[in-house]
Amino acid sequence: MPSATNRVPPSETDAETRLLNQELDFSASYMAIKTLNLRVERAPHRVTNQTVDALISVIRSNRFDTQKQALFLFRESAETLVSILTSIKGKPRAIVIPELQKILVASIGHRHRAVAEALGSLPLSIQAPLIRETPDTEFCALPFQEIMDRLRIDRKAELTWRGRSLTAPARDHRTGVIKFVKTGEDPFALTGETGWMDYFESAALFSPKEFDIPRPVKHKGISLFKITDIPPMITLPENLHPERFAIVFSAAKAYYDYPNEPLHAIPPLELSEVLGRNARLLGGTTAMGIVHTAVIPLFHNRVQQNRREDGGIYEWERSGRLDRWLESCRHPNFATSGLRDFEHFASIRQIKRLHHHIGSHLLSLILVAGSFFRNRCPEKQGKDSRGNPVDARQLFDPALFEEAIVSSMNAYYLGFTENVTPPTFALLPAGFVDSLIDEMGVDRHMEEVLRVDDQNRMDPNQFELFLQERGLPKEEIALYEQGSAEISLETGPHLGGFNQGISVPQLIDYIFTCASLMVCGRYIKENGLKECDN
């Protein structure tokens, strides 16, 4: 916040004029805006078109661009404009959204950030559904073969482990899934996933072609099972709950056909359609007050999950380094059949966080689109024999990449706002796709640092396992003395160097723009307003 001065703040009568005439220095301008903010709060009937013009002029002016605290000035102006928009009826509010939208799509830096935050904070009339996300309070013991029979799976069917889930093709041309509880997890928490399946099915909001919703298996209304008599020839992962608790459901045949996985990769011409369809689903469910909290796992630093208050989870608004972006895209929680992994659905508790969730969805969609091209040759990764970053930019199709991004953003806008006409002015910035390809296609940032504090939080077994999971052989691990010094590991590619900002800041700017336009578009729809038309 700008420092206090001995200057007398402009009176309400001349604050607007002096701002419009650019007569005030930085601190006096800030104080004048505070004066106008009080007028909006205490005497809204005295707010005029000139009030709006004065505030807009401050944001548009480049007089204070070099000020270190310019963000606070722009933010105060933008927030005052949003207050006018949300609390005053009549002409002054009519031009607020069009003017702020024009600034949003044409600006960068502090000005862009302030306007994006202001538009992203617009209040929306979204009511999350009243659903108990952990509906079960009891479980039922059933033998493995009975579970298989209920899923219509033949005894000779091929069984495949997908993480914690045991899957097999069923006679009804669907996929049977037994999703086990992991060690240390609350078994009943997993039943929240079947609760969401029931909710979406009963609400009948989507066609099967758009979103093939999994069907949970239940016994007398119970969806949590203790699986008994598991055949000894089935090798179980070590991290499963010792009581073998699980939920069971029938999913679409393509439930595990990821759009960016080489084995099941969709033809290039279908990339935009699949991403767009899932983007529309994400926008539509978010508009219902339901957010998918892990479209892909986004981390600033995975190793700090248990040390930082934020769990190392990526807060995209901070523009920090994005940890192991390509690894995060390995198994996205959407497929050609629609959204998946319902355990990550949650009712929105804080509408103020809506802008963040939308941005995370949009970021995830763009990253998955980028991984589609990298996965054409997954072994082309890391550093070459000379220690130089691998250059995989030739794997990208710039036109197809751009089409996939635009399709995803427009589809999300349609799903979230129910407006069939996305904002035509929200075009991709010049050079944006090229910047993405330069960073996603060249593995410049491979290093991860295991700090001493993080080492000391591990017991010896955890320390050894951590290094093994990152590719170090046992003989090399033996050379490290735990807690004696930082350890540098090559675990990338990351987007950005360790403890630095993201290497493609244009991506965060674009997410700010699009997420804010989503919120703004919904507000326009709810309030019958007009948006920018150019």
Largest sheet: 7 strands, mixed
Q: How do the helices and strands follow one another from N- to C-terminus?
A: HHHHHHEHEEEHEEEHEHEEEHHHEHHHEH
Number of strands: 13
**Classification by helices and strands:** alpha+beta
Cα-based radius of gyration, to the nearest Å: 26 Å
State the share of residues found in helices, binned by percent: 25-40%
The quaternary organization reads as single chain
Strand content: 5-15%
The termini sit apart by 34 Å
pLDDT averaged residue by residue: 91
Shape: globular
Low-confidence stretches: 4-9
Number of helices: 17
Number of domains: 4
What does this structure look like?
The chain has 17 helices and 13 strands. It is of the alpha+beta class and about 525 residues long. The protein has 4 domains: about 10-120; about 140-250, Phosphorylase Kinase, domain 1; about 270-445 and about 500-525, no CATH class; about 445-490, no CATH class. Strands 1, 2, 3, 4, 5, 6 and 7 form a 7-stranded mixed β-sheet that branches. A hairpin with a 5-residue loop joins strand 3 (about 165-170) and strand 4. Helix 3 runs antiparallel to helix 4, helix 11 (about 355-375) runs antiparallel to helix 12 (about 400-415) and helix 11 crosses helix 17 (about 505-525). The model is unreliable at about 5-10 (pLDDT under 50).
